[in-house]
């Protein structure tokens, strides 16, 4: 705890934790921009490839399905190899399916590329892992939520800026078919550039890189045994599965909205592609502050009321999200739909932040496994929502049913409780971190 940051100094890159903080959210932003770059282009792609609503649903499912497996694997990989190596590798490999999507010639090849791009969504787990090992208990919730929120804004930025990239390509004389393909090249090129910066300027934890530390016989917080031992330990913890469900309810819905919002506004309200992109993008851009707000409120509440208030806060946020979703599904005008979307979106993003403000306290010795399983829950929720849409055949009915299911899932947050020994141990770690750092400052 002595080397973990007890404060977030946003305007500095001099310390190891703050370099990790800024580079994780930047890498996450690039990954999510690439992951969702296809979403605002779907009306064009749908028309060019002659896709049915069932095929669009399959593409949306493929975009998140692969992430489930990769998130489960990548958490233990962080424990074993360290977040620096894992993030760099993901950025480099993830560029290939993005380029593949730009070169696809029909439904099947595009579907396979979207499946491959889904692996990029696992970047979230590495982001949360890296900030969790860099920051002390008093600010780890805020650090996790802020880095995730700023990175998550890449999805909203894709909704806004990819149509503008397309418009620029068309203005330069490209046709629609080549224009959307050229727009996808931009995130594909940004990923290896980000990989270079991540490799050069970060390290695994405040003390150094995992490989060197293990060589020196130093135990690693967050993955003492490393690899699959941490995954098995996480699987045996019921709290992990409760948060798996709640994260499916908040992040799963978030991903689903990112994938269908532009098409929904075009088909249901007859907006132009540009206007639909702006409306859909506003939902994603909430992540710039709303996720951070959820983590910050969780940290502040825990400082006054103890560890378990984090679970109660999460319950309230997910219940609010569910009720807001029902409202959004019944909105009968564009203005009301946007207001409803922003309202439930605020609860959704805050709930995501509050979830990962709780994750570092579940089991410190299996952090990679815990973060990976809960992160995978978000994508399970998105896939389930995709199958729900296939079943109903209507986005509006799907949204209404999701609202009911999300509201019910809020009860899982209340089930996350801790023993007296666990709470006492976390209180001691918090006091130790603050005490050590205060003594250093004096």
UniProtKB/TrEMBL annotation:
It holds the Pfam family MFS_1. InterPro entries: MFS, MFS_dom, MFS_trans_sf, NO3_transporter. Residues 20-421 form the Major facilitator superfamily (MFS) profile domain. Keywords: Membrane, Nitrate assimilation, Transmembrane, Transmembrane helix. The chain crosses the membrane at residues 21-45, 57-74, 86-103, 109-129, 150-174, 180-199, 240-266, 278-297, 309-328, 334-359, 366-389, 395-416. It is a multi-pass membrane protein. It is found in: Membrane. Its main location: membrane. GO terms for molecular function: nitrate transmembrane transporter activity. GO terms for biological process: nitrate assimilation. One of its GO terms (cellular component) is membrane. Belongs to the major facilitator superfamily. Nitrate/nitrite porter (TC 2.A.1.8) family. PANTHER family: HIGH-AFFINITY NITRATE TRANSPORTER 2.3. This is MFS transporter.
